[in-house]
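Researcher: Here's a chain I'd like modeled. Treat it as a single chain, no partners, no ligands.
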Amino acid sequence: MVYPLRAQAPLIEVAAAVDKSVITIGDRVTYTLKITHKRGLEVNDPGKGSNLGMFEIKDYVVYDSVTAGERVVQQFDYVISVYDTGRFVIPPFPVAFLPTDTSSKYQIITSQPLEIYVKSVVNDPNAQIHDIRPPSGIPADYLRLALMIGSLLLGLAALGFAYWMYRRSKQGQPVFRREPPRPAHEIALAELQKLLQSGLLAAGEYKLFYSELSDIARRYMERRFYVNAMEETTTEILASLNEASLSPDQVELTREMLTACDLVKFAKYVPGSAETETAVQLVQEFIERTRPVFEPAGVEVQSEK
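Model: Modeled as a single isolated chain. Structure tokens:
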């Protein structure tokens, strides 16, 4: 799906295509990304593309840009493959660009998602796949000896466990320690603190820092709202959170948070210290505003008649 920014003519268009949409396991598919934009528009090189869903990138070709009048066409080919059967989706590919010469804030445009159907190499629907032959059985005498030794060890383990349970019960201690699960927001805030102390920013590892920052937010959403955030694109996550009955303000906060991370993860954008601080604050604010709040239940006392 193309989302051009239109004035008199579209500033930029992104189109994706595959040379075949039905393959067998292990076949290679050429995924072509074509970017058409106004001459002079600054567009970041998509690079090797770190997120093509379940597909593994086997090769990568960049063609020389072609200028026709006021339009520039750039083409990138990715040779990809997958090793499972079924229907798979190549997610929308994000491309970052500066809309004007004076703008310093990148915007993102995405290609349309594409569906690939992967068939099994077995074409006969009635064919049956048999397991390999099992290894030859050990002689009966050895088998009986192994069973006897195993039974003896199992019996000793059961006696030892029973004695341990007896000792703990005599001492008034619980047999099994049960601890409540740690809340999702506590885990996320602890992970965020660890990331800030990791030294990645000082080492200039912005992509690694923002990738982990995005993963912390996505893992929190999975634990808190039970959505498949680690496998979904930003657009799919926003749709899932809408279904989870988040408020419009919370969904908009999520969009700002993930877009800030996507710029650095996929567009090779180098953020300033103020932008990084803002991105971290967005994650913290999202966690704090969506964490569960428990209020003590009121106790009603009935008056005696």
